[in-house]
Specification:
Oligomer: single chain
CATH class: Mainly Alpha
Order of helices and strands: HHHHHHHHHHHHHHHHH
CATH topology: Growth Hormone, Chain: A
Low-confidence stretches: 391-397
Strand content: under 5%
């Protein structure tokens, strides 16, 4: 693989995922400051901001994926990085909930290019390498969860807006790097079709391929359950263990490091040996058990010990992506990744609103069960487990 372009792709994914991880440690304090509310109410506003970000990803991911199939990966990725650079500046200057909301909307549109990054990796990968190379993207996402929360937690001492200024500098530097090294990898252009560039149109198009509809159903339930971590982590750990911003950042950094190890290294051993189908059969139920355990953790040190184990369950994601990518044609990889991103975005719209509301109900007044969202997530993961045998077998065939 060409090293410098791949480095730019990974840096782009890291910076985009930092947009999620960066704000997690400081968001409770920032929302309480801006809105003048308590932790339980701040969680609800945090869910609104997260869902607005995801809604933009849902609306724009298929269109951007189709645009990359028509005009190429390079212009789409570079324009996205320019928008992210400007958005971090806006977030750094925001002093009202409405400016924060606008910033999250812009960031969601720009982050919709994650599908283009996946399509770039599909362009340069052999069929048998795709799952492992998609794992590199996931590893970059995990690395963003190392740098973002660590930066957010440490720089929070300088003020809740300091992390955004630092992220703006990083995204600006990466934009210049991409302008210098990123080639075009699209081998065959496909006409842009507005009917396939909207979320429902793209979904209808790709589900016509045998086996994809089954995989997309599994993907949805997995994502809804797994989004409980970014949705309520900062609020949950503050309520359950009394953690401050620095400790929240450290815990998320531990998770991110574990993600890098799993997705950047372990995946290259596990998936080739077990195969995508067996990985799903083993690690979906593993996630069910782990989420159930998190819901009832009583001590912070136990939670830290469970954090790396939760990253191991992320092997499910590249296994599903690898199976789906084998079904789709070469000139539809951007569209496929756009639809996967859209389904992820639907889950990310639903999950923060659902999980933060469950947290609010479980911690409001005299109620004290901050782990309730993780119990709900375990139930949803069990639904995915129940669908698994029939769905996985059809897709593998």
């Amino acid at each position: 693989m060409p090293r410098l372009p791949v480095l730019f792709i990974l840096a782009t994914v890291v910076i985009e995922s930092m947009g999620i991880g960066l704000i997690l440690p400081v968001m409770p304090s920032l929302l309480r400051e801006v809105q003048g509310v308590g932790l339980s109410e701040a969680a609800v506003w945090g869910g609104v901001l997260s869902s607005s970000y995801a809604l933009m990803q849902f609306l724009f991911s298929p269109a951007i994926g189709n645009l990359s199939d028509r005009f190429g990966r390079r212009p789409v990725l570079l324009l996205s990085m320019a928008v992210i650079f400007l958005d971090y500046i806006l977030m750094a200057l925001a002093h009202t909930i409405w400016l924060l909301l606008i910033g999250r909307i812009i960031a969601g549109i720009a982050a919709a290019t994650m599908s283009t990054a996946m399509a770039f990796m599909a362009d340069i990968s052999k069929p048998e390498e795709k799952a492992a190379n998609f794992g590199l993207i996931s590893a970059g996402f995990g690395l963003g969860f190392v740098l973002g929360p660590a930066m957010g937690g440490l720089l929070a001492e300088l003020g809740p807006r300091a992390p955004f200024w630092a992220a703006a500098m990083l995204s600006g530097a990466n934009l210049l790097f991409g302008l210098a090294v990123l080639p075009e990898t699209l081998r065959r252009q496909r006409p842009f079709d507005i009917r396939r560039a909207n979320p429902l149109g793209g979904l209808r198009a790709v589900t016509k391929l045998p086996g994809l509809g089954a995989l997309l159903t599994l993907w949805f339930f997995y994502q809804v359950a797994n989004w409980v971590y970014p949705a309520v982590w900062a609020y949950f750990t503050q309520a359950a263990f009394g953690w401050e911003e620095r400790m929240v950042g450290i815990s998320l950094a531990v998770y991110g490091i574990s993600m890098v190890v799993v997705q950047g290294g372990l995946i290259r051993v596990v998936i080739p040996r077990l195969g995508e189908r067996r990985v799903l059969a083993w690690f979906v139920p593993y996630n069910c058990v782990l989420l159930f355990c998190v819901a009832f953790v009583q001590h912070g040190w136990i939670m830290l010990a469970l954090t790396p184990l939760s990253a191991l369950g992320a092997l499910v994601q590249p296994a599903i992506q690898g199976l789906a990518s084998r079904v789709a044609d070469d000139d539809a990889q951007g569209e496929l990744q756009g639809v996967l991103a859209s389904i992820t975005a639907i889950a990310a719209i639903v999950s923060p609103l659902l999980m933060t509301r469950i947290f609010n109900l479980a911690t409001e007044g005299t109620r004290d069960f901050p782990g309730a969202p993780f119990l709900a997530a375990a139930a949803l993961m069990c639904v995915a487990w129940g669908l698994l045998p029939r769905k996985a077998s059809r897709a593998q065939a």
